[in-house]
Amino acid sequence: MELHKENLSDEVLKLYEETIKNLDSERLHVIMEKPRIGNATAQYIHDGKGNFKIYITPESYSDYIFSHELLHVYITANGILPILTSFDKNADETSKSLAILLNDIIQHKWIMNEQRRRNILGEKNFLNLSLLI
Ligand SMILES: [Zn+2]
């Protein structure tokens, strides 16, 4: 199933257009299916070459969830936040795990602030939805 843009709120449509503006629209695919990996409700996948996929479980769709995944793409596509790959080439597993954890915390903090700033609401529902990545 494809995304129906006419169903998006104005705020989310604006975010969607801003996200694909700097991204060839061919490079973002929104797939209304449960993510194939793990138990997440929604997930974004970046192949490292500028191609993004967002998977969303249709029964769980909300503008809040979609905008969350879109903002992950937005951050990556625009290099908004530094991405820690690891602390060092020879980093041990602990350092690598810490880098992953820190990226996750930094991105989610930024995303939630940005959703508030853009008036995309639904944070309370979101907090009840575990496993959004
Ligand atoms: Zn996330």
From TrEMBL:
Domain of life of the native organism: Bacteria
Protein name per UniProt: IrrE N-terminal-like domain-containing protein
Organism: Clostridium coskatii
